[in-house]
Amino acid sequence: MSMLSVDRLRKEFGGVQAVVEVSFAIEAGRIHSIIGPNGAGKTTLFNLVNGLYAPSGGRVSFLGCDVTGLRPYELAARGMARTFQNLQVFFNMSALENVMVGCHLKSDTRLLPSMLGWPSIARGDRATRARAVELLHEVGLDAWVDADAAAMPYGALKRLEIARALAAEPKLLLLDEPAAGLNPTETREIDRLIQRVAAAGVTVLLVEHDMRLVMDVSDRIIVLNFGRKLAEGTAQEVRRNPEVIAAYLGTAAAQGAGSRHA
Amino acid sequence: MRLRGLMQARTGGLLALALVIAVLPLALPNNFYYQVAVLVGLNAIVCVGLNLLIGYAGQISLGHAGFFGLGAYASAVLTAKFGWPAPLALVAGATGVALLAFVLARPILRLKGHYLAMATLGMGIIISIVINQEIPLTGGPDGMPVPGFALFGLRLTGDRTWYWIVGGLLLLSVWLSLNLIESPVGRAFRALHGSEVAAETVGIDTARFKVLAFVVSAVFAAVAGSAFAHFAGFVTPVEAQFLRSIEFVTMVVFGGMASVFGAVVGAAVLTALPQILTAFHDYEMIALGVVLIGTMILMPRGMLPSLAALTRRWMR
């Protein structure tokens, strides 16, 4: 059984077809990547899988259940977490609190005990806090634990989002351009982080522009162009695919590449 | 360290508030000032609740005077016309308001920004119209008298008695709010304010928590309304009016959004000033507008947080 399968998924915005009949399946315990030129529909696809958008057609199955049309919080409860290309950090909180919110699903959210300050709530909070500190350590943000999120640099916020997503202990983690805007050193750190996360048993689906990062970490790559799936395969296979080269570099380059391989 | 600082700020703040409530009577020369203090306390209770919704959960309401009015009239009507014991009427009023807020919240809180403001404004106005029109029950625009509050045969009368009751209620509401804010529920509220999209993706049912914040803040307003009705001994529809709602929001914004003690300070300053500066009564609304605009320009985070930041800068 595949962890996530997407069957002929479609999304239209007015007359624009952002995602067209895309199908793919993702096996548990691997790193999959979605690549494609700007405007290929990668983030839209993420938003469909994650429930932020309702699809115009097609189905999404997660862990063997049809989850089409479920809201993001329902998918989170089933074990799907994500980060955002354009940061969605809680800027009104500290780094630690951001990650603690990530533990929401395992927290006691009964109203009356919370208001009356029952000891069990405080105990749960201490455990949550310890777990959040641990997660911040895992993503290398020890120095920022007590910092206000609004005072943190961009690269640290990217990792903060990953820590918050991991706090929910997801089975599937969607990472939307985790290395966008980062310098090469920071990108290498993200690279290692993603591999550590995958090694810990979390299935990763990655959208990324940084080709070296994608080629380094991905077990399987799906290529989108103009909302359609262009190709799918290992890094080697995708790199040699003439259609992929054409999409990225133009037709002439693809012909050149084709003749060289021929 | 920040955590310990926070805990200290919390218990320290509660102690400071208790101390102010305990010592203030020494500075109150006569009953008039006790009355003002009681009004300050009642407004502060509403603002502490409203701040959960506006300051923490990031949802506006321009209709909370409606809930205050409903609490007041529930106590008035149930005790005066139906002879209910006052505590039961208070609980019934709070429960009724909670149910009403729960039913209204889902459709209303789907709206955002200006639309949410308009919807809550409409809700408050409808409540005030109903109170005005139900003349057989509420006495309409003339208002109605309210019997005193009797607890176990003990009648609570006199401004000084009410001072201690409202002081206790205020401490209780501040304590409940602080507990809530420091719990996972409170963090979920603040997450709504920070990013609704991110809140959803970490598993927060945003609709549910918006409704929760709305209902809790409505109940705070209703309880304050009930207490007001018995304290004043007379209620009029003015208590549920739109302008009262604006006053509450102004107090929250002025005192400091997302600051429990800020809400108390905002309520204290904006309730006490007009009472003390009665000579300028005609210009009250102008003054309110100036305060709101001035706060937005000079201290957008509100008085208490801005002052706290300023002192921290000085201490360094």
Secondary structure elements and their pairing?
The complex is a heterodimer of chains A (262) and B (316).
Chain A: E1 4-13, E2 16-26, E3 31-35, H1 42-50, E4 57-62, E5 65-66, H2 72-78, E6 80-82, H3 95-102, H4 111-115, H5 119-138, H6 154-167, E7 172-176, H7 184-199, E8 203-207, H8 211-217, E9 220-225, E10 228-233, H9 235-240, H10 242-249, H11 251-261
Parallel strand pairs in A: 3-8, 3-9, 6-7, 7-8
Antiparallel strand pairs in A: 1-2, 1-4, 4-5, 9-10
Chain B: H1 2-23, H2 31-56, H3 64-80, H4 86-108, H5 113-133, H6 135-138, E1 144-145, E2 149-151, E3 154-156, H7 159-181, H8 184-194, H9 196-201, H10 206-232, E4 234-235, H11 242-255, H12 260-276, H13 284-298, H14 303-315
Helix pairs in contact in B: 1-7, 2-7, 2-8, 2-10, 2-11, 2-12, 3-4, 3-5, 3-10, 4-10, 8-10, 11-12, 11-13
Name the descriptors:
heterodimer, A: 262 residues, Rossmann fold, 2 domains, six-stranded mixed beta sheet, 11 helices, 42% helix, globular, B: 316 residues, mainly alpha, two-stranded antiparallel ribbon, two-stranded antiparallel sheet, 14 helices
Characterization of this structure:
The complex is a heterodimer of chains A (262) and B (316). Chain A is 42% helix and 23% strand. Chain A is globular, with a radius of gyration of 20 Å. Chain A has 2 domains: 172 residues, 3-Layer(aba) Sandwich (Rossmann fold); 82 residues, P-loop containing nucleotide triphosphate hydrolases (Rossmann fold, 3-Layer(aba) Sandwich). In chain A, helix 10 packs antiparallel against helix 11. Chain A contains 11 helices and 10 strands. Chain A is an alpha/beta fold and 262 residues long. Chain B has 14 helices and 4 strands. In chain B, the strands form 2 sheets. Chain B has a two-stranded antiparallel ribbon with strand order 1-4. A two-stranded antiparallel sheet of chain B has the order 2-3. The longest helix of chain B has 27 residues. The model of chain B has no long low-confidence stretch (mean pLDDT 90). The interface between A and B is large, with 42 and 33 residues.
